[in-house]
């Protein structure tokens, strides 16, 4: 028989194929039981795939000869060679690894690749081995098509059967998916995987053109407004928001609809959350600070500041803080000749250096790690670099912490500022800007009192040529150690939210708003001015927390809110001006100039000397008493408790937005809807 060379080639390929199959298994296992299981698993896979290849060959032969099987000897001789070649190609393409229940597009590509390789080798063997020239050419085409179809189809059938069995074994929750875009498609694909624990029954999307379409077999049945009806029809209370790019307004609307219909919702926060399974929806969505503001962010043109900063030497103290860092960024964009970034936080300065050094700029960058209270060091720095403009953002800000560290609060916030003012003027600084706080108005804590003293020094300290300005604003959303990052961390860690009081309110602004105010005040302020930004109405912290919960993709029923009571020195509400202060408009409609009762520097300097003397004892009570002599409005809540047995009832504040009211009364021409709605 002329096929003997074919049998010889087949036997040699069998030996090589066995070695390839063992290699495809990933090496020899050390455990005997694992070695046996692996061995039989490979043989089982090989047997199934060999059967499919044999079936493809026979059927293609049968089709070629009009449903007959002539030349059976040639068919039988070619069968072992074809099976061995195809199995080797499958092993080479990794199709003996993995699990068929997870078959996907990559497996289909690998099957096509293995089939092409195997066909090329088989044709070469059959055409150049003597005695096989009569092999039908049509079979060369039909067989690989059928082999690829059978190999791929078997895997798909196995996956379908495995997933059906898994669905029958597990109790899945029905879920309605909000969205019909790319995010929803990825979410639906992950939900369809075995073990997700969910089953998508419908989609909703506000794009009406998508209604009636199907995504992975799940129909788009209506808009978000139809969500309650669709959820009730399918008897499900679970909603999955699969719109990663959803705005705050969209999320609030969806949350309101879900709350009204008593539906529980989750949010797919990112591709990572989707790929990690449907459980990835439990991640808290990152909420931009602007979404919590409750008003449109104030946009201020900084061209006037840019022209004055360009080419100058600028010093920013507290540069590693949230405000200081943003100041450095925006000042750098204005093209100063030299920018000195100063802070005692070495780690913060290190990261600031890494960030700013990447910016394409010709500005000389100087990074200084030092204590503001080190007079000799500060004198040396300012004498060496001669800054023309100073933005002073270095101050202790945490109210409860400063209540326990009265000496440090006064040392840094009062005498650190006083020393810097003296050194700055000695070295030819022409402009000095102090960042103050709304806590300086009727302060009930030492931090606010020190800020008020700083404002008084800026307003009445005589200077030869240095223009001094202070800027007063409210809480900065997202700043280090502030409320919002703490609440976001609690939500992320699935903890209850801690709020001091259900009625506590605060004025809020974004970091960019705060820095824009600082830079614009630097450009338009006159010596002794205190400037304040129109921050709208105060926001109740409880409302902000509930909004943050919703925008994080959770419902209020999932996150508990606990009230811990007012902390030491904390007020129920903040104010932006004193009753005796006059409110004047500026060239910017969103910035107001505040002038209070003139203070004599001679008197203030004497009081500061007495305060410095009290500092030597490091006694908090005596320091507070001297601070009260400088700021008569300073009322320490701890003292009030001791005297009255209760905290001052600050909630009795007038409901009229006093600042806007007084400004309107003094300047009727400014009585228009754009007036700030400040509360006192």
SSE blueprint:
Blueprint: H1 4-24, H2 32-64, H3 72-92, H4 105-128, H5 137-169, E1 173-178, H6 182-191, E2 198-204, E3 214-215, E4 218-222, H7 227-233, E5 238-241, H8 248-260, E6 264-267, H9 271-275, H10 303-309, E7 313-317, H11 322-333, E8 338-343, H12 346-356, E9 364-369, H13 375-385, E10 389-392, H14 399-403, H15 406-426, E11 431-435, H16 446-460, E12 467-472, E13 475-476, H17 483-492, E14 497-499, E15 505-506, E16 508-509, H18 511-524, E17 530-533, E18 539-540, H19 541-551, E19 561-563, E20 582-585, E21 591-595, H20 601-615, H21 620-630, H22 637-644, H23 658-666
Parallel strand pairs: 1-2, 1-5, 2-4, 5-6, 7-8, 7-10, 8-9, 10-11, 11-12, 12-17, 13-16, 14-19
Antiparallel strand pairs: 3-4, 15-18, 17-21, 20-21
Helix pairs in contact: 1-3, 2-3, 2-5, 3-4, 4-5, 11-18, 13-15, 15-16, 16-21, 20-21
CATH homologous superfamily of the largest domain, by name? Answer: NAD(P)-binding Rossmann-like Domain
- CA radius of gyration is 38 Å
Specify the CATH architecture of the largest domain: 3-Layer(aba) Sandwich
Q: pLDDT under 50 segments (min length 5)?
A: 1-11, 13-31, 270-284, 641-680
Enumerate the strands of the largest sheet in spatial order, edge to edge or round the barrel: 9-8-7-10-11-12-17-21-20
Alpha plus pi helix count = 23
CATH domain fold name of the largest domain: Rossmann fold
Regarding quaternary structure, what we see is: single chain
């Amino acid at each position: 028989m002329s096929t003997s060379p074919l049998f010889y080639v087949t036997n040699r390929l069998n030996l090589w194929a066995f070695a390839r199959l063992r290699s495809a298994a990933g090496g020899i296992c050390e455990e005997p039981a694992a070695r046996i299981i692996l061995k039989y698993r490979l043989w089982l896979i090989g047997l199934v795939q060999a059967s499919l290849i044999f079936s493809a060959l026979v059927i293609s032969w049968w089709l070629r000869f009009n449903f007959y099987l002539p030349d059976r000897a040639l068919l039988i001789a070619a069968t072992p060679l074809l099976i061995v070649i195809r199995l080797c190609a499958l092993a080479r393409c990794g199709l003996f690894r993995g699990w068929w229940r997870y078959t996907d597009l990559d497996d289909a590509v690998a099957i096509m690749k293995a089939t092409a390789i195997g066909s090329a080798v088989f044709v070469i063997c059959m055409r150049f081995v003597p005695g096989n020239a009569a092999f039908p050419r049509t079979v060369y085409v039909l067989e690989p098509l059928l082999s690829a179809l059978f190999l791929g189809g078997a895997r798909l059938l196995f996956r379908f059967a495995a997933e059906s069995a898994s669905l029958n074994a597990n109790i899945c929750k029905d879920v309605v998916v909000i969205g019909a875009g790319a995010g929803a498609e990825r979410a639906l694909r992950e939900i369809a995987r075995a073990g997700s624990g969910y089953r998508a029954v419908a989609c909703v999307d506000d794009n009406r053109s998508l209604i009636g379409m199907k995504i992975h077999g799940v129909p788009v049945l209506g808009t978000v407004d139809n969500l309650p009806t669709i959820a009730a029809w399918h008897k499900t209370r679970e909603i999955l928001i699969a719109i990663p790019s959803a705005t705050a307004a969209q999320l609030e609307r969806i949350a309101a609809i879900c709350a009204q219909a008593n539906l529980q919702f989750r949010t797919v926060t990112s591709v990572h959350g989707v790929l990690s399974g449907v459980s990835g929806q439990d991640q808290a969505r990152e909420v931009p600070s602007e979404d919590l503001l409750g008003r449109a962010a104030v946009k201020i043109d900084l061209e006037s500041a840019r022209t004055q900063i360009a080419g100058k030497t600028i010093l920013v103290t507290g540069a590693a803080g949230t405000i200081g860092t943003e100041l450095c960024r925006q000042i750098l964009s204005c093209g100063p000749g030299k920018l000195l970034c100063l802070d005692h936080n070495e780690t913060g300065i290190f990261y600031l250096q890494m960030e700013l050094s990447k910016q394409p700029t010709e500005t000389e960058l100087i990074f200084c790690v030092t204590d503001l209270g080190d007079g000799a060091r500060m004198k040396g720095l300012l004498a060496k670099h001669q800054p023309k403009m100073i933005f002073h953002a270095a101050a202790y800000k945490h109210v409860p912490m400063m209540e326990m560290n009265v000496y440090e609060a006064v040392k840094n916030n009062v005498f650190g500022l006083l020393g810097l003012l003296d050194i700055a003027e000695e070295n030819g600084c022409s402009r000095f800007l102090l960042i103050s706080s709304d806590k300086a108005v009727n302060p009930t804590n030492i931090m606010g009192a020190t800020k008020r003293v700083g404002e008084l020094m800026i307003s009445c300290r005589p200077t030869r040529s240095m223009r001094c300005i202070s800027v007063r604003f409210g809480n900065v959303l997202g700043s280090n150690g502030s409320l919002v990052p703490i609440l976001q961390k609690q939500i992320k860690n699935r903890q209850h939210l801690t709020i001091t009081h259900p009625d506590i309110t605060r004025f809020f602004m974004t970091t960019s708003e705060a820095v824009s105010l600082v830079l614009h005040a630097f450009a338009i302020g006159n010596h002794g001015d205190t400037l304040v930004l129109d921050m709208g109405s105060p926001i109740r912290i409880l409302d902000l927390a509930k909004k943050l919960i919703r925008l994080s993709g959770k419902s209020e029923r999932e996150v508990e809110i606990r009230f811990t009571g007012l902390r030491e020195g904390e007020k129920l509400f903040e104010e932006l001006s004193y009753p005796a202060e006059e409110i004047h408009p500026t060239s910017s409609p969103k910035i107001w100039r505040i002038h209070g009762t003139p203070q004599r520097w001679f008197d203030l300097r004497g009081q500061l000397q007495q305060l410095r003397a009290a500092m030597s004892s490091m006694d908090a009570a005596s320091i507070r008493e001297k601070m009260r002599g400088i700021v008569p409005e300073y009322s320490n809540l701890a003292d009030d408790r001791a005297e009255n047995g209760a905290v001052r009832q600050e909630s009795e504040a007038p409901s009229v937005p006093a600042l806007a009211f007084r400004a309107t009364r003094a300047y009727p021409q400014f009585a228009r809807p754009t007036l700030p709605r400040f509360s006192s």
